[in-house]
Amino acid sequence: MGETLNTTADIAIKPSEAPSEEVLHSPNLHYYVHLRECVCSYLDPEGVIAVDKAFVVADKAHSQQRRASGEPYIIHPIAVATLTAKMHLDAESVQAALLHDVVEDTDISDHFLEEHFGTAVKNLVEGVTKLDKLKFSNYRDAQTENYRKMILAMTQDIRVILIKLADRTHNMRTLGALRTDKRKRIAKETLDIFSPIANRLGISELKSELEELGLAALYPMRYRVLKAAVTKARNNRREIISGIMDAIRIKLKDAGIQARVRGREKHIFSIYTKMVRKELQFNEIMDVYAFRIILNDVDTCYRVLGQMHNLFKPRPNGFKDYIAIPKINGYQSLHTSLIGPHGVPIEIQIRTEFMDQIAARGVAAHWAYKESGSEPVSTTSQRNAQRWLKNLANLQKSAATSTEFIEDVKTDLFSDAIYIFTPEGKIYNLPKGATPVDFAYAVHTDIGQHCIGALVNHHSFPLSHRLESGQTVEIITNPNANPNAIWLSSVVTSKARSKIRQYLKGLRSQECELIGRRLLINALRGRRIEDISQDSINRVLEQFGKPDLKSLFVDVAVGNILTVSVAKIIAPDLLDDSSLPLTGTGGIPYVFAQCCMPIPGDEIIAHVASGRGLVIHNKNCRNLLATEKSPSKLLKVGWNLAVTSSLTFNTGIIIEYERRQGIMTEILNAIDMASSTVQSISSEQNDDNTSLLILTITVRDRLHLAGVIRRIKAIPNVTKITRKR
Prior knowledge:
Elements: H1 2-5, H2 21-24, H3 29-40, H4 45-61, H5 75-86, H6 91-99, H7 102-105, H8 110-117, H9 119-128, H10 139-156, H11 159-173, H12 180-200, H13 204-218, H14 220-236, H15 238-254, E1 260-263, H16 268-278, H17 282-285, E2 289-295, H18 298-311, E3 313-321, E4 334-339, E5 345-352, H19 353-361, H20 365-368, H21 380-398, H22 402-413, E6 417-421, E7 427-431, H23 436-443, H24 445-449, E8 451-456, E9 459-461, E10 473-477, H25 494-506, H26 509-523, H27 534-544, H28 549-557, H29 563-570, E11 582-583, E12 590-592, E13 604-609, E14 613-618, E15 634-635, E16 638-639, H30 641-644, E17 649-658, H31 663-673, E18 678-685, E19 690-699, H32 702-713, E20 718-723
Parallel strand pairs: 2-5, 12-14
Antiparallel strand pairs: 1-2, 3-4, 4-5, 6-7, 8-9, 8-10, 11-16, 13-14, 13-15, 17-19, 17-20, 18-19
Helix pairs in contact: 3-4, 3-5, 4-6, 5-6, 5-11, 6-9, 6-11, 8-9, 9-10, 9-11, 10-11, 10-21, 10-22, 11-12, 11-13, 12-13, 13-14, 14-16, 15-18, 21-22, 21-25, 26-28, 26-29, 31-32
């Protein structure tokens, strides 16, 4: 194979875009035609010839290979290259896409690639190539190392992940020829790693497709049922959607505003995840009609917002300005929720043409938008991506293992954003649940390392408490202060965790041992370690797989093991605090899970969320099914009824009722008569004559909740009441 391929070095660079003889005589030319037309539309002649050269090499290298479907293997690299070309990536990216499997699957070496295509193409191919030829003890270790290598290559050149995303997209499109177990494994990888990366880079086109394909492969029956339901609902509501679009167009025309208006279909994956997360029925999801208005400039976006609020009634707290404050992936748009005709909820997105392209292509738009003869423009997506990639590189330096590194990356990928202000008005994007310590590290590592306190909206604020979007935070520092190991139980950003761990690992082993010992003694209410029985110590060491107390103390110091998990085994009686609503938390900050909203009387359990403290769930909560059942992940906790009897707790109920005048007022009056208050309320209409009322109410315990439900059930036309779980 080597001698045959050496002829590619003699391909001439021609001044025109005419294909070379090698291209014209390829038996797979008909597969290549569409890709070539695509690159000719935006690359210069030299770039097109460079892509031709890569096609000839890839075509010959894969000539004897077939895909699992029986088709020529070259179809796959051509498809991957076509996806990169549709993103308008440069010639080197398209070349690397065509060649991405030659080193892994053929006799071509990376030396050959560097000699004939240059160092950049060789590095891109190397970054995309998997580690199948290395030996690992199990598949999980192999995949973890693959992800680590891919992400590190991405930090060197972001084009690596763009090619990898294109590669995964075509693989997902052609999963049908694989075994069921392999299809599901690849689909799970896609939903766990690749679609979140596409989302983090703002490439919604690929993200949405990867999610849809992943759901179809992982849960084929659920996907088919949902798809049929979506198609049916869309056909049934065509007149309503058309009427709303006509009303929007007429309103804009009367205001003299030129715009493109189109309906925005909800993706099946987003419908599915919302149904699972909120335990909703399909008809509850499809009651939201989504539209998008595309304009020429930002000023007109805000004018159109006013026009839409005049046309339809805005819903309370239904407006989000992602133009003034873009999402962490660079996404910009105005979002507003409105009440349309017949009480139908509507969501409208308003953005410019440029913002619309950025929303679809994200960081890839960096290559698409350039003025003739100039360098590509630096978009918000690009700048945010570069900051994220720099953070990933720092994470790798402080992570002890590939698994730890990948877990930190996943934390970044799946976080929702909040927006925090400095006293000077600068905005920082942080994950939901972030604390002042997370904010301190986001501003600067030195500020985080020497943080001793925080002022939130000019008032003292605990370092372990969660921040809320829109708050102004000022960090108090002391040059003699150092990171506290306890912070690891509350911080959520990977940067804060990695910097704290880095500091703790930098301490001498003896210092770590002393810190761990001190933390455990504190959790044991001052009880001496020497007074603990040897049986208890042996039980702890066995539970956590540690050879001796010294290594246990070190792990406690660096945050690998929570002190409460150890203290719970040694002396559970010491952890009960008569002044706290819950027993068994060891004083660690906790929050009640919003998925099941437990109340006194429910059987509960605490989940030790990595880097997030304790989350209190109902013991039968569905979200706990996938959690790791180990002493370090789950803690047995209970209600302190002597304390909770004087407190109220939020819980959720869903009321189904037949529509009639005045029924909502009767429901609210019944709740008030039962000595409960409504914290939040939303309603949705079903296709028949029934509606749903989703309420968050305050109750003292399960007995109080039962009394509230009895009063509501007595109201005529109330057909069903369920609790949010």
